[in-house]
Amino acid sequence: MAQRHAFVREKTLGDFMKVFRLLFCWLACFASVTFSANAADFAEGGDAELKCVATISGQIAPGDTEKLKTFLAGLWERRDTPINGVVLGDDTGNRSHGRLCLDSPGGSLSEAIRMADYLLKGYGSSYWVHGLGTAVPAGARCESACAVFFMAGGENTESDIGRIADRVLHVNGKLGFHSISLTLREGTYSRDDVGKAFGLALKSMGAVAARMEALRLRLSLLQTMLATPPDDMYFVEKIGDAAHWNIQVAGLPKIARPTSSNIAEACSKLSRQYTPEDGATPANYSAEQNEDNPDAILPHSRWSTVDVTPDSFQSFKINETDGIIEFVTDGGTELGDIGCSGRFDIGRMEMSAQVEASNGWYVAVPNFFMYPGDMTFSEIMSLAEGAETVSLDQIVAKKLGAPQKGSCLVFKGDTNIDDEPCEMTSLTSLNAGLESYTLESYQWPSGSITVIERQGGKVLVNGALAETLWQKTKPKPVAEDWETSCLKNTSSGNVFCFRKTS
């Protein structure tokens, strides 16, 4: 009997370990991992356009924090010598902001956290490292533990704002996050072993969670990391991800003369970036809601939920002489309650604005905020075809509406002169200016087609300007029919209506 009980205990513990290993892949996201003994390499310089004063490459291993301290101390000894245009020792108030270029597949996460702490908590003679940003240059990759260290890049504003995030991803670089699992050796584990391993996982998770504010690490990014299996990688390659997680993107073509829709898109992203992810703060991301995938950790949309025009703003003025667009949102209707106001410099292609969530601070708004949130970097690069700017008439999305059967009617005054069954199909295109164009085709039994075009509040019927009629202005026979929509051809005076089949 004793042997039977021993067998049951052994089998139960074995089954528990199987479950534990599966659970551990999720919980051990931030645990120490044993990697190759190869350590990271540190070299002076790097990508000049990204203002890198040093490059860290290779696998991160225990002891690299001390190597980083020694290496940066050596740079400080030569602080008056420019490195890619950056003079670390310039105390005239014109000190250039330097960054650390990263090219690493990952490594020891516990060591990456210690390296991050050195940037976050620089003090005394090492205080200057508090102002070092991070960057992933073209052709480089920064994954796993490296990506956590990447998030430590920042700039000390020496103001009430404090240290702000400064991390740059080149459009041709790779930045990847995932959860990390422990590799457990084969063997028998006691309850104490399991308890210690479980405690290690929780402690490691706590180490990163405790630094979320200092790292400017959004909860949605942490959730994304936990949801990405250890053998997979979540790469930052969408506009919305970079914007929301406060990651600058270098090398993207710019929008030179934004439409009101582009400005509204940027305002929405700015508000979203500054709105806390605390589960209690109301959020209104008017241009970013995605009803198609409400369960996504960080949903992004290609299509705005509102049709934005200059009239959607409280004020939208273009000063052609100075090349400045000044704007104020209406703060409560079409553009949402985000309180966005600011200006766009057409010559510099630069935008600055404030939103309700930024507590009155005017901040620089990256140009790429004007693209739809779910656009990928590669899509935008394809649109530009090597140019530095994207033409606003470039099509960025198309969607085909489901065919609708119904009745097509034509009225002259209140007299119905035609009423036949027909079918409507539609195709909507979205350009880089985030202006939509919809082409509706109504097929009559005879084979003839009535064409309706919709763009920016303007409607055409068979090429002629049309006026939308509402309940009291529609022909009397259909005035109270909510299922019937009507347009008046301002050229012929005839009214075309479409009644959906229930």
Can you describe this structure?
Residues 1-39 form the signal peptide. With 502 residues, this protein is of the alpha+beta class. The protein has three domains: 12-19 and 25-236, 2-enoyl-CoA Hydratase, Chain A, domain 1, CATH 3.90.226; 253-391, no CATH class; 399-500. 24% of the residues lie in helices and 27% in strands. It contains ten helices and 25 strands. It has an eight-stranded antiparallel barrel. Strands 1-2-3-4-8-11 form a six-stranded mixed β-sheet. Helix 1 runs parallel beside helix 5. The radius of gyration is 29 Å and the shape is elongated. The termini are far apart.
Q: In brief, what are we looking at here?
A:
The chain is α+β, with helices and mostly antiparallel strands. It is built from 10 helices and 25 strands. The strands form 5 sheets. An 8-stranded antiparallel barrel has the order 18-19-20-21-22-23-24-25. It has a 6-stranded mixed sheet with strand order 1-2-3-4-8-11. It has a 5-stranded antiparallel sheet with strand order 12-13-14-15-16, with helices on one face.
Count of extended strands: 25
Overall radius of gyration: 29 Å
Main sheet strand line-up: 18-19-20-21-22-23-24-25
Label the structural class.
alpha+beta
Largest sheet: 8 strands, antiparallel, barrel
- N-end to C-end Cα span: 73 Å
Enumerate the spans where pLDDT stays under 50 for 5 or more consecutive residues. 1-37, 284-291
pLDDT averaged residue by residue: 84
Which architecture of the largest domain per CATH? Alpha-Beta Complex
CATH-defined topology of the largest domain: 2-enoyl-CoA Hydratase, Chain A, domain 1
The CATH first-level class of the largest domain comes to Alpha Beta
Q: What global shape is seen? A: elongated
Helix-residue proportion:
10-25%
> In percent terms, what proportion of residues is strand?
25-35%
Number of domains: 3
Number of helices: 10
Signal peptide: 1-39
Keywords: Lipoprotein, Signal
Protein name: Lipoprotein, putative
Region (Disordered): 274-293
